Amino acid sequence: MYGSSVGQSVIGCHFTEMRTHLGVYTTRASKMLLEIYEEAQSIVPITKFIMDAATYQKDNVFSIQIEDLKEGMAYVWRIVHEDYSYSPSIMDPYAKGTFFFQGEWRNIIKKTKRYHLPKPQIPWEETILYEMHVGHFTMNNKTLSKETRGTFIGLMQQLPYLKQLGVTTLELLPIFKWNAYTLKNRNPQTGELLEDVWGYNPVGFFCVDERFSVSKESSKAIDEFRLLVEKAHEEGLEIILDVVYNHTGEGGEDGTAFHFKYLAPEVYYKYNDKGQFLNCSGTGNTLNTNHSIVKKFIIDSLVYWSEEVGVDGFRFDLASILGQDECGRWIKTSLLNEIAEHPLLGKVKLISESWDAKGSYDVGRMPYPFREWSDYFRDTMRQFVKGDQGKIKALADCIQGKEVYFTDLTKGTSHMIHFITAHDGFTMWDLLSYNDKHNEANGEGNRDGHNANYSYNWGVEGTTEDTNILEARKRGMRNLMCLLILAQGVPMLLMGDEIGRTQGGNNNAFCQNNASVWMDWERVTTFKSQYLFVQRLIALRKSLDYFKTADKNNYKISWHGIRYNQPDWSYYSKSIACFIEGDQSLFLVANSHYESLRFEMPPSNQKWCRVIDTANKEIEDIINEEMVEETNYEVKPYSICLFKEINYKKIG
User: Which of 76, 148, 245, 545 lies 20 to 30 Å from 289 when distance is taken between CA atoms?
Assistant: First the structure.
């Protein structure tokens, strides 16, 4: 019924109406069994093919062409051992849909669909990132149906919220099919076995995880995700995927095998001189990204998501691993360079987390056009806002987007990704509410998570009804947002920071999927003034040419103290003023002293207008244009002010 012939050494599943090409790379088999099922939940295969190496294998690829297969059918690969026993079912690394049925993986035949709609293509100078977890974003949104909460469809229905906020680009935590069952930790209160919720242990690099779909089927989830991408593009929003190509969810020696461990572990993984998995990622294994087969696999995956699904870019987890050889040395022939120079991938948005779990730190070293996360910016801004000494020079560098030296001198300020908070660590509200992490629910005795958080609770650990402390925290949040949005570089907000989302002090919530970490949509109302502040702050940034232009030579930056032209760079200084002189001159003043300071305004032929004063409590007073009639301005304790130079005749 199903005619077949030897394939063309094509890896993966390539479906057409006439024939389907199926191929798998393996160094561990002399024979392969291929089973075809009418559908993923069929008990008995409709046909089988025993494939011997002499006939069907070339360059370690077993391949076959089969006629008259239909989209939605399932296939299973098995290794035939010398004693004619079979391996367990093997997940096709290239599968675009999978289904776990009766203890076995079924791979789903999917038609190739090239993305055809125009993409927003927002310039980096105008990009504002929003890092988010698809499930956590809408799981607690009572305006959505229960079926759509925590799904791509739920996120799609909330796109207007994100567009109104003003962000331009959504950076989604991993959505690839992942192994959630890698933990042995239990919730200390309920005894429940915890699961990996963030998705940083991928096993399906061409298929989305069904957890985020309404259908709860991987083969259909991709269609829901495509719809999200299309709707986001219609709204002028971009979608970037957080991707993990440094390791897989197969874990270490005792980890669950899905595919690579069966097919060619010595090709796909790095080993030490004792024959054990290298663990540069902290998860048990490390992909051998310098092998040509692994490079091809990863680049094929990236091209698929960009060209067929339509995403706008990628953020690479622990990207240092992708630039190193087996000994951890930086090499020019790395996967990173191949991605950067790829004719398609080199044109999408590329972001790197430029370090790894074994201690490599390569910020500033990534090839053009990669943008890089700046943890230096994160730590500097946190320390300054809570009043630490010795941070003024670092603060000035960060405000200019010049805190990192790039080995590629063609890179500029837009190659820095600035953030205060990210998925890994405190939320912004918790940063201002807790001196210490509170990760007890993770089942590791509060040993997990970072200890160097540079946080400050302003008087009480955790929740409080004290209005003075609450106002201090809100002011701190406004200060952090100002420094993030008003610095050169590409700003990235963490999901919910605009409304003070809390995780109860948990700074490593990778195994939590409950109301303690979900976006609390009631805070859109209770934190309305904070939301409006962030919204208007973003709108202000978008209105200023200083941030939009790639050529910063039209602007002259100078530094000042309470006296004009007299900046205080001493260790004990906690304040600085930045004069940005150009077509739209700006004057930014930051004070983290416990007392007010009066700053001289720069001399001007025009008038100065105060645009922001974070010391004020009401939104109309915090961010609102008001003329400055005096030659100096009082900047309150722990506050930030922004002024812009305007023609007085334009007022009123």
Answer: 76
Of 235, 234, 202, the residue nearest 93 (C-alpha): 202
* Eight-state DSSP code of residue 109: P
**Among candidate residues 609, 600, 599, the one with its CA nearest the CA of residue 636:** 599
Please list the residues that pair with 371 across neighbouring strands: 351
Beta strand spans in 128-168 (E): 129-132
Of these residues, 224, 353, 497, 498, which one is catalytic?
353
Q: Which CATH superfamily is domain 4-108 in?
A: Immunoglobulins (2.60.40.10)
Q: How far apart are CA 168 and CA 163, in angstroms?
A: 7
Whole-angstrom CA distances from 542 to 126, 432, 496, 526, 584 are 7, 27, 21, 26, 13
29, 130, 456, 524, 534 from 497: Cα distances, Å? 51, 10, 16, 11, 9
Rounded distance between C-alpha atoms, residue 360 and residue 368, angstroms:
19
If phi > 0 it is left, if psi is from -120 to 50 it is alpha, else beta; for residue 558 that is beta
| E strand or H helix that includes residue 15 | strand 12-15
Q: How many helices (H) and strands (E) does the chain have?
A: 17, 28
Q: What is the DSSP letter of 642?
A: E
Strand pairing class (129-132; 490-494): parallel
Catalytic residue among 209, 317, 497, 520: 317
Lookup: tokens for 466: 């004290």
519 pLDDT band, cuts 50/70/90, is: very high
Task: Locate the domains of the chain by residue range.
Answer: 4-108, 125-389+412-482+496-536, 554-650
* Residues 589/640, Cβ–Cβ less than 8 Å: yes
Q: Is the pLDDT of residue 1 over 70?
A: no
Model pTM above 0.85: yes
Domains 4-108 and 125-389+412-482+496-536 share a fold: no
pLDDT of residue 587 exceeding 60, the answer is: yes
Sign of CA dihedral 622, 623, 625, 630: positive
Q: Which residue, among 135, 138, 230, 215, has the nearest Cα to 178 in the 3D structure?
A: 135
The first and second tokens of residue 77, run together, are 């690969």
Q: pLDDT tens, 302-329? A: 999 999 999 999 999 999 999 998 777 8
Tokens of 534: 């962030």
